[in-house]
């Protein structure tokens, strides 16, 4: 991934560190300039991920509006996005042992840009994945299906790493986005699980962990029940055998 010809942030950080030990006016004058350049480079770096989120959000909203206007059911309940802060991005890079370069970070960290799609039914989750995969400018690099194979704690969701082109003033870049697709029940469970782990700083009492595990099973059963009821309703309305109909 090509970086601008301007000074790399890691080079700037090294020069800033060199000046920190100097107690003279020249060092104080240079330091703000170096920091401003660092800020510009990081902003430029993160912008490509923001634009990628804009692109994928537009695609999802088009699908959502199309189905709301032309069908009785929309497979998208809502969409949320998040862009890692510079601090969070650098912290993760350090934990993963990335070289202190933006090129290395871009190569090894693929969830700088993230989007979450919440759907009414499990069939909607896979439908959205298939619709995106069929679009010529979207490339799916990785699929982790935690619905077919939930995590040990009961977490369920479909995770995709995909790339989408971002058209900049001087180049086009295929930027990775992490997309999580889940049902309302899965999203509710994941939200509560996150809040509990945050409150207990990861040291969750065993009794709560067991309750969370039980709640995950209940959420899974709810999804299955709602899918069955929906299939029976549509079979009655359309004279089908209950397969998915838009």
UniProtKB/TrEMBL annotation:
Gene3D superfamilies: Beta Polymerase, domain 2, Nucleotidyltransferase
Native source species: Georgenia deserti
Protein name listed in UniProt: GTP pyrophosphokinase family protein
Pfam family membership, one: RelA_SpoT
Top-level taxon in the UniProt lineage: Bacteria
Keywords, in A-Z order: Coiled coil
Residue ranges of every copy of the RelA/SpoT domain listed in the record: 81-204
Coiled-coil positions: 35-96
Keyword presence, Transmembrane helix: no
